[in-house]
Design brief:
The protein is of the alpha+beta class. The protein is built from six helices and four strands. It has two domains: about 45 residues; about 80 residues, no CATH class.
Length: about 170
């Protein structure tokens, strides 16, 4: 689907919204909630939100950047169409004023099957891209997934299981 088709979908959705607002004067709010979506409205919405659609992919990328740059939890996005697997490479430290600082060096989507080998490969690529020597890495904070344990082992990075961190 090209941009022209997307514009048609978008125009049809806007027209449906205008029609819905017009009907608001004729129907009560409860009647509107109970009203069944037409087949055409449903199909148009699904076409515009298809994850293979160019605009959808662009929006997914922007959402990923927002999550990474704002250090948001991955479950920030719950709706279908934005469900992507992300791997981020974040560095933490303290500055000269002893204030905690952190930077997201890179956030990539994992479209392939999640394996320890793939995650280790992506980690090494990011590490090399930023010229971060392995001996400078103190630990990898990871979840409990076996592929993450394997990635840490392959990359020869000490790892910390996120659930095992206790703040006293």
């Amino acid at each position: 689907m090209g941009y022209t088709e997307y514009e048609k979908c978008d125009a049809a959705l806007k027209k449906a919204e205008v029609e819905k607002k017009r009907k608001c004067t004729e129907e009560t709010s409860l009647q509107l909630v109970k009203r069944q979506v037409t087949l055409q409205e449903s199909l148009m919405k699904n076409q515009c939100c298809d994850s293979s659609h160019e605009k959808s992919r662009e929006l997914d990328k922007l959402i990923c950047e927002m999550i990474a740059l704002q250090d948001l939890p991955f479950n920030f996005i719950e709706e279908p169409g934005a469900g992507v697997s992300l791997q981020s490479f974040t560095v933490h430290g303290i500055n000269d004023d002893f204030k905690r600082v952190y930077l997201v060096l890179k956030c990539v989507t994992l479209e392939e099957r999640h394996t320890g080998d793939l995650v280790a490969q992506k980690l090494d690529e990011i590490r090399e891209e930023w010229d971060v020597h392995r001996q400078k890495l103190h630990a990898m904070v990871r979840d409990g997934g076996s592929y993450m344990r394997r990635a840490a082992r392959i990359s020869q990075i000490d790892d910390i299981h996120l659930a095992s961190i206790t703040i006293v």
